[in-house]
Design goal:
One of its GO terms (biological process) is P-body assembly. This protein is α/β, with parallel strands linked by helices and 470 residues long. The chain is built from 17 helices and 14 strands.
């Protein structure tokens, strides 16, 4: 008991008196206090006062010895000193088993129950009692219970009606890349790493003209072949393939694809692709900035698209964003950019002030982070010149996630990378080359096209391309 020496204590005796002092000696029989003060004579200090243990009713420590903390720090054992364990085991000062026997667990829990006034039915254990479980459990469920609703609906069926108004309103600009220039870039086939020849816009016009005039492959036929192959690529590579689209038990609404229609050639192929996607259960919504100069092919594809279940919104971008954000329960998963062809520019297609304002608002919305990774540009991102890869207006460019070359890749793609108008960061833009049905004989019919004379597509209808710096 020597560890209690120099503790200042306040002793309450059984006769009601109190004594205060420093413990100078202690054993099992008595405690000696030094400089003691008794409550019956508070003004008198007794040098030594002996008090029998049997006379003590209560003991309260009122002050620790001055060197207690230093002693504790010096005596603090290391956590891994095994000799301390043996010291405790061999010590007779603390008998754990004897002290544990003094603890009356039964009486303590009886006291807990006596003080606890919580209704047994309000306890968690009360809900799990056999009688309650049997009371709530059903033997059989009705046919409309425990079943996910397979008839989720939104406002899709009411979109694109005759009440669609033609106005113009919100959305603006975007960010350019302007990375450091790279001089030795080329497109290669991702499968065999072979070089892929590039065509200028003039060469593409010549190739497609020869396909029509010499081989009878019209623009409508090329649009149909392109749509078949591109829609298949989209469904298998982006929309989840058969595991998602063929799952008849999927209670979710179908995927949503947005078409941005501008140029005649690209717009026709986008409409045709949207029609094929619609035929496979995908919901496709198209937005047209204006309908002033619509050529015959685009008009026909537009008609076929709507008759197959596609929806069209004209000019009113506020209506478009309201449909996407508020009226439909599915987010847009792909935005197909067909605003610009390889042989024209946005400023030429949308030259009216009202159309320009709508175009800027549309591009601003598309280039927001939520939409930017969903953009699939046909031929080349809108705003980038198909021949030089330059920008005529830095504020008018879409930052695409996928770039789809139709027939042959454009030379403007590599030049756009060199100019910093397309991002070279790994995985920023994924390139595909899609077969549009151009006969191989076209390339051998003229000398300036012989560099394209090869079988571009064998067993595949689309080829993944990569940008190489070697």
């Amino acid at each position: 008991m020597t560890e209690f020496l120099n503790y200042k204590v306040d002793l309450t005796l059984k006769d009601g008196t109190k004594s205060t002092g420093l413990i100078s000696q202690v054993d099992s029989q008595q405690i000696r206090l030094s400089n003691a003060i008794q409550s019956i004579q508070p003004k008198q200090t007794i040098p030594y006062l002996d008090i029998k243990s049997s006379e003590i009713a209560d003991l309260k420590v009122i002050q620790l010895p001055p060197d207690f903390k230093q002693q504790q720090k010096r005596k603090q054992p290391d956590w891994d000193t095994s000799s301390d364990v043996q010291d405790i085991k061999s010590s007779n000062e603390f008998d754990f088993q004897a002290n544990l026997a003094m603890f009356d667990k039964k009486s303590v829990f009886a006291d807990f129950q006596k003080r606890d006034h919580t209704n047994i039915g309000d306890r968690l254990v009360g809900h799990n009692k056999i009688e309650n479980v049997n009371k709530l459990k059903k033997e059989k469920y009705d046919n409309d219970e425990m079943v996910l609703d397979q008839n989720r609906t939104d406002n899709w069926d009411n979109i694109g009606t005759a009440t669609t108004s033609k106005t113009g309103t919100p959305v603006v600009n975007q960010n350019g890349y302007k990375d450091s220039q790279h001089q030795h870039l080329k497109l290669i086939n991702a499968n065999n790493l072979g070089n892929v020849a590039l065509a200028s816009p003039v060469q593409m016009l010549e190739i497609e003209r020869l396909a029509t005039d010499s081989f009878g492959i019209t623009q409508a036929m090329m649009a149909e072949v392109c749509a078949t192959n591109l829609s298949q690529l989209i469904m298998e590579s982006i929309l989840g393939g058969a595991s998602r689209l063929s799952n008849k038990k999927n209670h979710n609404l179908p995927p949503l694809v947005l078409l941005l229609i501008g140029s005649a050639r690209g717009g026709s192929r986008a409409f045709a692709t949207g029609r094929h996607l619609t035929n496979h259960g995908v919901r496709v919504l198209a937005f047209m900035i204006n309908t002033v100069e619509v050529d015959a092919d685009l008009q026909q594809q537009w008609k076929l698209f709507e008759s197959s279940g596609g929806k069209v919104v004209i000019s009113n971008i506020i209506e478009l964003l309201d449909i996407i954000n508020n009226q439909l329960d599915t987010p847009v998963e792909i935005i197909i950019d067909a605003l610009q062809g390889y042989d024209d520019h946005l400023e030429d297609t949308f030259y009216q002030d009202e159309d320009q304002a709508t175009l800027r608002k549309l591009m601003k919305w598309c280039n927001e982070p939520q939409q930017q990774n969903k953009i699939m540009s046909l031929d080349i991102p809108s705003g980038v010149d198909g021949g030089s890869g330059t920008l005529s207006d830095d504020s008018l460019k879409l930052n695409c996630r996928w770039c789809i070359s139709m027939g042959i890749p454009l030379s403007g793609i590599i030049l756009a990378y060199k100019n910093g108008n397309m991002s070279l960061r790994d995985g920023d833009i994924v390139h595909y080359l899609v077969d549009v049905g151009i006969p191989n004989k076209v390339y051998s019919s003229k000398g300036n096209l012989r560099k394209f004379d090869k079988f571009w597509y064998c067993s595949e209808a689309s080829i993944k391309l990569e940008v190489s710096e070697k």
